[in-house]
Amino acid sequence: MNKQTLAEFQEHLKKSRRIVALVGAGLSVSSGLPTFRGAEGLWKNFNMIDLATPDAFYIDPGLVWQFYSWRRYSALAAKPNRGHLALAKLSNLPQTNFITITQNVDGLSARSGHNSDNLYEIHGSLFTLKCTSFMCNYIEYNNFKAPLTPALRGTEHEFLKSSLDSESPEFSPVKQMKDSELPQCPVCKSSGTQSILRPGVVWFGESLPMQELNEIDDFLESEEGPVDLILVIGTSGTVYPANSYVDRVRLQGGKVAIFNTDIDESEIEGKDGVWGFKGDAAELLPVVLEPLIGEVKQP
Ligand SMILES: [Zn+2]
């Protein structure tokens, strides 16, 4: 880590009153979670991107639930890392006005002890459940139950347990599931109708959650003053919506710190008030944030 960059950053950090962290997949990689498009983007020979759509769920909710049940198990097997813990500590400081905007659905920030009042999961979460009925707005946050229903038992294994040692292991078969075997909405049930729940993630073709976006806007345009600093963590600061938040903070006179294994020089070079920290965000964040949060222990 460049000493001068660190010193400049920390000098600014110590006088920052209002801070935003923008988090992407890179933060979860060192918790052992591959990025969504990693591993060729396949699950049991299905293209993951094809399964993450409203159409796929409409056609075969049982198939999509088996995929999401597997993703829930994978995320639960991972642990929040020291980067998640550093942000959690920052979120609980009384003197700092701070929000985290995460693009990750893995629930690791929520599980790290991050203050839930200032955590925005703008792509939703694998651990949020929503009713599929248009008449019903039931939503449940941080449901970490696994399996969610008896029929979803076994979905933690992508391959047949008996074939794991062989050179070409066989996929455990996808089950045909009836709606009654899938997670059910308790509110609809109590009024005598049956509605299934869906994963509370933002699928391809869906819009980002309006309420969360509005609350983030309120924070960015607060009368309490401009945002002093935005931390761009494990994500490219050049893709929407990350770039729009970075631009808005810069327009207010705020500074930018990028933490990523791969940083495009054009994001930093010749730009005043933009710092780049190249490396594993899980290792960098506890070091650079230390003046505010103190020591972060190993999880
Ligand atoms: Zn319902």
UniProtKB/TrEMBL annotation:
Zn(2+) binds at residues 131, 136, 185, 188. Its cofactor is Zn(2+). The keyword Zinc applies. Signal peptide: none annotated. It is an enzyme of class 2 (transferase). Keywords: Metal-binding, Mitochondrion, NAD, Transferase, Zinc. It catalyses: N(6)-succinyl-L-lysyl-[protein] + NAD(+) + H2O = 2''-O-succinyl-ADP-D-ribose + nicotinamide + L-lysyl-[protein]; N(6)-malonyl-L-lysyl-[protein] + NAD(+) + H2O = 2''-O-malonyl-ADP-D-ribose + nicotinamide + L-lysyl-[protein]; N(6)-glutaryl-L-lysyl-[protein] + NAD(+) + H2O = 2''-O-glutaryl-ADP-D-ribose + nicotinamide + L-lysyl-[protein]. It comes from the Eukaryota. Gene3D superfamilies: SIR2/SIRT2 'Small Domain, TPP-binding domain. Pfam families: SIR2 (PF02146). Belongs to the sirtuin family. Class I subfamily. Belongs to the sirtuin family. Class III subfamily. NAD-dependent lysine demalonylase, desuccinylase and deglutarylase that specifically removes malonyl, succinyl and glutaryl groups on target proteins. Has weak NAD-dependent protein deacetylase activity; however this activity may not be physiologically relevant in vivo. This is NAD-dependent protein deacylase. It comes from [Candida] railenensis.
